[in-house]
Amino acid sequence: MAATEEVTESRLLLAEYDRIKEEQRTRIGFRDNLLYFTLAASTAVLAITVHSGQVQLLLAVPVICLVLGWAYLVNDEKISAVGRYIRDQLGPRLAELSGAHGEVFGWETYHRGDSSRTTRKRLQTAVDLFTYLALPMVCVTAFWCSPAVQSLLVIVSLAQTVALAVLGWQFLRYAER
After folding, report:
1. Is residue 146 helix, strand or coil?
2. Band (2; pLDDT cuts 50, 70, 90)
3. Whose CA is closest to 105, among 30, 24, 5?
4. What is the pTM of this model?
5. Alpha helix locations (H) across 1-116?
6. Burial class (CB in 10 A: 0-12, 13-18, 19+), 132
7. Is the CB of residue 58 less than 8 Å from the CB of residue 142?
8. By CB neighbour count within 10 A (0-12 exposed, 13-18 middle, 19+ buried), where does 162 fall?
9. CA-to-CA distance for 155 and 37, rounded, in angstroms?
10. d(CA 44, CA 61)
11. Is pLDDT larger for residue 81 or for residue 176?
12. What is the DSSP secondary structure assignment for residue 148, as one 8-state letter?
């Protein structure tokens, strides 16, 4: 902005929109990469476990999924929060200031009206639950069924199971409908 240009509330709101959309884009890329990284890290642990025969290594998968799953969930929630903020706060304020006859930032609402959106959201939740809950629980169950079971590791695996249940509940709780 040139020094002679007036700073107005509209310009400030548009600048805020640009910044939070950039944050949203960055978070989307990070969130999506977390899913791939989780699968790669889990696959690496599984390969090392098979190669070494040390079944207790399977308990690393729940740790990976808990840490990366929580980061995924937090980023996903912030991505949705940005969209809500634009739809519910920023857009209406800018529409009022500009005297627009209709919605400002229409894409924020338009793309949510897709008839397949509900199905896609449910499928994404299923993928998230598989990746961050079912996969690590398969590893915990495989550990429980192995001859390598030791009481301390069973306690660790039970704590992991509780933590995974909480994470799964959070995924379901935050699943945007």
Report:
1. coil
2. low
3. 24
4. 0.87
5. 9-52, 60-85, 91-98, 107-110
6. buried
7. yes
8. exposed
9. 27
10. 10
11. 81
12. T
Q: What angle do CA 162, 136, 59 make, to 5 degrees?
A: 85
Q: Using alpha carbons, select from 123, 104, 130 the residue that is nearest to residue 13.
A: 104
| Token output for 14 | 């548009």
Nearest residue to 38 (alpha-carbon basis) of 67, 74, 73: 67
**Which amino acid appears at position 96 of this protein?**
E
- Rg of the chain (C-alpha set): 22
97 Cβ contact list (under 8 Å, min separation 6) = 9, 10, 13
CA atoms within 13 A on the CB side of 148: 16
Rounded to the nearest angstrom, the gap between the alpha carbon of residue 2 and the centroid of all alpha carbons in its chain is 39
Count the Cβ atoms, other than its own, within 10 Å of residue 160: 21
> d(Cα 108, Cα 84) in Å, to the nearest integer?
8
Instruction: Give tens-digit pLDDT for 8-48.
Output: 888 889 999 999 999 999 999 999 999 999 999 999 999 99
Tell the residue number behind the tokens 């939070």, with chain if given: 20
